What we know:
CATH architecture: Alpha-Beta Complex
Helix content: 10-25%
Distance between the termini: 44 Å
Strand order of the largest sheet: 4-1-6-5
CATH class: Alpha Beta
Structural class: alpha+beta
Number of helices: 3
Amino acid sequence: xxxxxxxxxxxxxxxxxxxxxxxxxxxxxxxxxxxxxxxxxxxxxxxxxxxxxxxxxxxxxxxxxxxxxxxxxxxxxxxxxxxxxxxxxxxxxxxxxxxxxxxxxxxxxxxxxxxxxxxxxxxxxxxxxxxxxxxxxxxxxxxxxxxxxxxxxxx
Length: 155
């Protein structure tokens, strides 16, 4: 059944601060000790670049960024069985994402999670090497690949 469902197209944003730490937020709908980077769907007639800027602003209020890199490959993950049919109104089996690395050029008090449709309840900067350890299990492979991309980029 799940293989018949399409993948949702989305974007993900690796936000680095001046110390090359990564922004992560704790999701409102999953407040256990799991953190993720900003991400979201690509709307109809939207490019990944426009979607990335919109999602970042919608989730974090961050607008002061310098785009450092758009990753070449799309990365995807499948939803676990317990979330299939629940997330995204049951229309998708997972997500196929275009990721961007951006440098946050603002100051921390620009970050405001009290947005129109809040997704995060808390945020922090972490060492990017910790990314695979803080994410939900079904996104771990994606975050391991992203850690390598960041590692290659910041060295």
